[in-house]
Amino acid sequence: MSRRLAEAPDPDLARALVELGRSLPMPAARDLAGPVSARLRAEGPSRPGVVRLPVALRPARTLRRAAVLAAALLVLAGGVAVAGRLGLPGVRIIFSKTPPSISPTSPPTHASPTPSAPGSALGLGDPVSLKEAQAAVPFSVREPSLLGLGRPDAIYVRQDVPGGRVSLVYLARPGFLAPAGSDVALLITELQGRTDRALVGKMLGPGALAEPVDVRGDPGLWLHGATHEVFFLDKEGAIVTDTVRLAGNVLLWRHDGVLLRLEGPASKAQALRLAASIG
Amino acid sequence: MEGRPLEDAELVDRASQGDLSAYEELVRRHQRVAVRVAYLAGGSAAEAEDAAQEAFVKAFRALPRFRRGAPFRPWLLAIVANEARNRRRAAGRRGRLAARVAAMQGEDRPEGDAAPSPEEAVLAGEERQELMGALSTMRLEDRLVIAYRYFLELPEAETAAALGCPRGTVKSRLSRALGRLRAALRDEEVAAAGEGEADV
Questions:
Q1: Residue A40: inside a domain, yes or no?
Q2: What's the rounded Cα separation, in Å, for the pair A140 and A152?
Q3: What would the pLDDT profile of B130-156 be if each residue is shown by its tens digit?
Q4: Could you tell me if A236 lies within 8 Å of chain B, comparing CB atoms?
Q5: CA pair distance B104, B96, nearest whole angstrom
Q6: Between chains, do A16 and B103 touch, taking CB under 8 Å as contact?
Q7: How far apart are CA B121 and CA B89, in angstroms?
Q8: From start to end of chain B, where are the E strands?
């Protein structure tokens, strides 16, 4: 018997091995899509992740290769120059031919751990009190004091970048409307970026614009016209990819070494008023 | 999604832009082979699913490193095998092919297979036992190339990815492994004959 197999031609031996393989008990594959998705959602639904710098630069190169519109390239150059002039040397604007298809607010297929917390579907981390948020991060958590805005409806902390990030969620209220399909009107994200190496990139679709602005003396960028994807460099030197949660307008600025991002303002004027009210 | 099933490449593009439903579809497509590779590479049925799940999470995070246009499955299987290997080493397992010969006889026949005649069943059972016996004496590296190629019927590119070796070396590795398998089968026969004499 063994002799026969040992001396069998290759195809026969191969066939015997295939048959053996088919008869072997193998672990059954249960559904992994649910658990995998739940984990990714818990850690942020739209964050492909922290990757090491040399490798992570590749997609940026790929994106740049995709930037084929001459006009966009001109604006790209303008954006970089603008960033430099603003004292945000790391800011990089990446234009792509087509807007990224991002679905940050697509309804989760699995129960969120806190379905009742406003903005819990945005993957912002754990809902906390302001006090807890402050205790969780090494920088001062700031909130706008604009009249009529009031306090955030929910605060989240996520430890996905060194130092962590705090997100303030504001539901729709008079003067602050939520986009269609969402009840969140404003989202403010605060995280610690290393000043000299901060790299912030925005991937803008056609028609999107980046405009330098001054936020009470701090350099900033007003981005409008498309859904955005942000890349920033954390202080460990890793690129973090992050999706802008609320499609629309974004104000990005730095204050006291903290990168702030305001999503969802109705207008540049409102964005600047909100930003200026952040102490 | 659209009427036609999306290609892996399209799903990868969407997933890398944060579309989790696209990634879920990728997971569903490849979870079966992922768990099997994790099982073979890690040597533990109990941990195979955990290892595969972890690998899928890591693969998502590593999507920025994925070379666009490359096939997704070999890349994924490399991550799966690596995760399972690391777990095996951490647990100090030898990486056995965990299936027991005894457990294989007459069990786990794929559904829909015509029932073999008693003679066929006996022959097939003996053949499998001998193969398993011979394989169990071989080095893990040899067993794995055989297992990926024949048990899981992976193509060469995926076998290479799971082994973590260049694609061009799969053929020669497999050829050497089959040579050693033949030698092990002959040894087995000699041993069996020896036992037989002793018993008499």
A1: no
A2: 16
A3: 888 888 888 888 999 999 999 999 999
A4: no
A5: 15
A6: no
A7: 37
A8: none
Residue type, A260: L
Q: What is the pLDDT of residues B98-113, one digit of tens each?
A: 433 333 333 333 333 3
ipTM, two decimals, is 0.80
**DSSP string of A205-237, one letter each residue:** -TT-EEEEEEETTEEEEEEESS--EEEEE-TTS
pTM (2 decimals)? 0.48
| Cα B134 from Cα A13, distance rounded (Å) | 13
Q: How many CB atoms lie within 10 A of CB B165?
A: 14
Given a contact cutoff of 8 angstroms between Cβ atoms, the answer to whether B84 and B36 are in contact is: no
Q: Does A211 contact B at CB distance below 8 Å? A: no
- Does any domain span residue A106? yes
Residue A113 included in any domain: yes
Cβ within 8 Å of A, B 19-78 = 19-21, 23-25, 27-28, 31-32, 34-36, 39, 45, 48-49, 52-53, 56-57, 60-65, 68
Domain that holds residue A181: 51-276
Domain borders along chain B are 7-98
CA dist A93 → A120, A127, A203, A213, B71 (Å): 29, 31, 6, 15, 30
For the domain bounded by B7-98, which CATH number is listed?
A: 1.10.1740.10
Give chain A's domain count: 1
CB contact under 8 A, B39 and A27: yes
